[in-house]
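Exercise 3.2. Students should predict the tertiary structure of the chain below and write it as structure tokens, then compare their answer with the key that follows.

Predict this chain's 3D structure.
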Amino acid sequence: MQASNFTAAHRLLVTAIVILITLQASSQKIYENLPVGKYAVGFKIITLTDSSQTPTPEYNYLGEKNEGERFRKVSIHLWYPAQDEPANRRLTYGDYCYNRLLTSTNEVIDTARKNAHLAECRQRTERWFGSTADDAWQTLLSAPMLARAEATQVDERCPLLIGTLRELSTSISNELLASNGYVVAMITEANTGSFAGDALQDIPEMQFVLQYLSKKMNIDIDKLGCFGFSGSGFVPLLFGMYDSRVKAMADIESGVYMDVLYQSFAVSNYYQPSKLTIPFLHIFTRDLSKQEKFISDFTNKTNHAARYRLIVNQPGMHHWDNAAEGYTSCIFLHNRGDKETNTKKCFEIESNYLLNFFNAMLKDDAQSKTFLSAKPQLASMPSSLWDIDVLPATKRAPTLDELTYIIQKKGIKEAMEIVNSTIQGDSATDIRIVYMLNGTAYSFFRNKKYDEAIALFKLNTTLHPGDVNVFDSLAEGYEATGDTENMKKAAAQVLQLVANKSVLTDGEKSAKEVNSKRLAK
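Answer key:
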């Protein structure tokens, strides 16, 4: 009896050891060729109430009073550098397949609901990549990841990366970045039906989340980046254009510049490419890049930002090959045929670039800067698998507020040298807005700063040579200083411009009368 019990216990122990070794091997398969950092990884889900947003009306369609809380709920999925705490549950790949359903880390949901979500995940994977064997799929679902639930954050201030959640797809990237010292926060996105509509809700929520995390997590808000994959990369990019706290942004296969997607993205009030001044990494596959009809927005309109365009060149890559779904299908499901090896390598190349990009921009890491400056040699990676274009930033022109400060600090001569050297390459500065520049000039004029006022009036005539009012203002400036010769030149230009008009506004009629008198002096 004792021998029998010993044998049964021995078999259980051996079985447990085999399962443990199998799980460890599964984890190693995912991360063995990725640049995993020195930190253990923690994971948690937090749901907040944003009392500034009330999407539920007080009364429903039938006129009945809506019961319950009407404020918006914002769920945050957090990955972060953590203490190594083996007692905390290690997440599996399967957990990430349905974590979107949860409002807290250890919430228990209905088994049927969870299984339905896992089945949907399998159906999507097979639709994209082909059928899978049951045992291979189960092995993938049970594969342990890096993160442990509710592990304690390390006592270090960490850069923060924020985005909108794409369930499963960026899970490997999120863990990888956290293992290298980043806090990664992904909020559940709005799904209004358009990227512009999503931004109206998601961007205020991102700012709400930043306020919360700056108080509750050990983060360095001065080292803030944003990124996302596919459609979940659109709002983070708009956020990077909008919130001046963001220091670097990246997208992975977001299709921002593809025809139909661009039409939805670019109509957002947050879309201001010419005002973008932070570094931008754009990752895309070669085949899909041929559909980037509006890539000139990246190459030309964002010229005040340092830009990095990474194109992976493996033919026939699927959109989802740039995400956890495609990468793990190559490792566990083996349904990719002769594309498997290079598809896997492309994901690893992208991961190296994503990490080095944020290390260079947010951590000022010298090795990462070298990595980005020119195409590097990567071990076991054929150089034909990727191309990188590095587009340097051009100096933007100052805004009117900045120009006013420069004039006061450095003088009008140096200020105009700065403007003249930058204005031609900057279509976004408010210096180009005729009435705003004129208003700034008059603020100097009223304070009897005539040299400054005249210089700004002259700049306005250069920028708007067909505008009657700006030449009238210039003539007024010269008149105030007693410079009759230049006053008459400006007045003559006013009369020439109005002479070419068949219909005059009341303002133009007045300018004609005033400048005729100036010429007669």
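Discussion points: The first helix runs from residue 2 to 31. Residues 232 and 470 are 46 Å apart (CA to CA).
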